[in-house]
Design a protein that fits this description.
This protein is mainly alpha-helical. The protein is built from eight helices and no strands.
Length: 246
């Protein structure tokens, strides 16, 4: 099971690198396209959190809601104290100069977030294989934008193209590390893996409801709003398909 999880982690790392390459090559998608992608992935991630991760976490014990809350608040605090809004894309086609300190804060914040993505995949795989795969799909949907944004920020902070690519690749590395941790925690005590799943559920609720869905509104189109609902629908169909195989 760990091997499967690591393969999934490698795929997310490749998505990060692809996004970073797009930023380095300055092939920025249109704002409407980006908003549509964020809305679709936001709906998918929120559905994963509410329909699968949260119920599974709550079934693990009465203390789990508290860990869900900690997961939500932790990402909120990271955003507020680093002043970094994860998954937001530059508004203009040209890079705007970013202070070096702000660039470093962004890199730390993105790495923390992707580490939690890895925790979610690993903890999900331990709970149920199909849940882990569904969480992986949720993560994969927003890793290309994440890689794009961090590489764009690093370039704006004065980093070289190669260094910006390395920054994007670091997100994939910490994701893989995050995947391994729940398996190690489960070996120590299964309760620890349950806590990590609940923590990740709170994190996913924040990413979907507080970050991605509101960011999709920048596209200023009702069709993009409907894509959030479509994201829910795609998750539901995906979950049924995954269930049929696992």
């Amino acid at each position: 099971m760990l091997r499967v999880a690591l393969v999934l982690g490698l795929l997310t790392a490749l998505a990060n690198i692809l996004g970073s390459a797009l930023a380095v090559l300055q092939r920025e998608p249109s704002r409407r396209f980006t908003a549509a992608a964020l809305g679709l992935s936001g709906g998918f991630i929120l559905a994963a959190a509410l329909l699968e991760m949260l119920p599974e976490s709550l079934s693990r014990g009465p203390s789990m809601p508290g860990y869900v809350a900690v997961g939500y608040l932790s990402l909120f605090l990271i955003e507020q104290f680093t002043n970094v809004h994860l998954h937001s894309l530059p508004e203009d086609e040209h890079l705007v100069p970013v202070p070096v300190a702000a660039g470093f804060a962004s890199l730390v914040a993105f790495n923390v977030h992707d580490f939690i993505d890895g925790l979610a995949i690993g903890a999900g795989m331990i709970a149920k294989t199909d849940l882990g795969i569904l969480i992986f799909l949720s993560v994969l949907l927003h890793e290309i934008p994440a890689g794009f944004v961090i590489a764009a920020i690093m370039r704006a902070a004065g980093w070289s193209r190669w260094s910006a690519m390395v920054a994007g690749g670091s997100l994939g590395v910490v994701t893989i590390i995050g995947i391994v941790l729940p398996f190690w925690a489960w070996e120590l005590k299964p309760f620890f893996a349950d806590v990590l799943l609940a923590f990740a559920a709170g994190n996913f609720i924040y990413v979907g409801a507080t970050l991605l869905v509101p960011l999709s509104e920048s596209g200023k189109s009702r069709w993009i709003t409907l894509l959030v609902v479509l994201g829910f629908a795609i998750f539901y169909v995906s979950s049924r398909l995954v269930d049929s195989f696992f």
